[in-house]
Design goal:
Low-confidence stretches: none
Order of helices and strands: HEEEHEEEHEHEHE
Mean pLDDT: 92
Helix content: 25-40%
Shape: globular
Distance between the termini: 41 Å
Number of helices: 5
Strand content: 15-25%
Radius of gyration: 18 Å
Largest sheet: 5 strands, mixed
Structural class: alpha/beta
């Protein structure tokens, strides 16, 4: 008898879940954001909102608020762009999967870098991102938040067995 086939996530859901996972690395308590840059179903770079390398994190020393924004952290989109450029990855023509709609400055940076499509499941306050994306011809897809759980049925996979914890 055939086993019941589980629903696979769509590509958009899959990459949004990766953005959600990236957001778990965020160090600013005001909002955790993740960004995954993808081209032809291949992950090119990831980012999350966090402090500059070598600098203190909001989680440790508090946020630095200017005009109701924490300026101690780089946003997820900027960190993904920096990761791509640091490794010599051309992101022109890519999709950006972001947990939250971009702020105005991140939208401008993604547009300038050649992003062609943005996929999000949450909005962001006080931003002109949507208008900037539309004006630049960037496709915007606003989806429902994917399931937060990862379903991995170890005991029912015939070729898998649980590992013993290392010391």
């Amino acid at each position: 008898m055939a086993k019941k086939k589980k629903n696979r996530p769509t590509w958009d859901e899959y990459f949004l879940k990766l953005a959600m996972l990236a957001s778990e690395r965020a160090t600013c308590p005001r909002m955790h954001v993740g960004c995954v840059l993808v081209k032809n179903k291949f992950v090119l770079a990831t980012g999350y909102n966090g402090s500059l390398p070598g600098q203190p994190h909001c989680d440790d020393v508090g946020c630095l608020i200017v005009n109701n924004h924490c300026v101690r952290t780089n946003h997820a989109e900027i960190n993904a762009l920096v990761q791509a450029t640091t490794h010599g990855v051309n992101i022109n023509g890519t999709n950006a999967y972001i947990t939250n709609m971009s702020c105005t400055n991140c939208a401008k940076a993604l547009i300038a870098a050649g992003i062609k499509r943005v996929v999000v499941f949450s909005d962001y306050h006080e931003t002109l991102a949507t208008q900037f994306y539309i004006d630049a011809g960037v496709e915007i897809a606003k989806l429902n938040m994917p399931q937060k759980e990862i379903h991995y049925d170890l005991k029912n996979y015939s070729s898998a067995k649980k590992t013993k914890k290392s010391r």
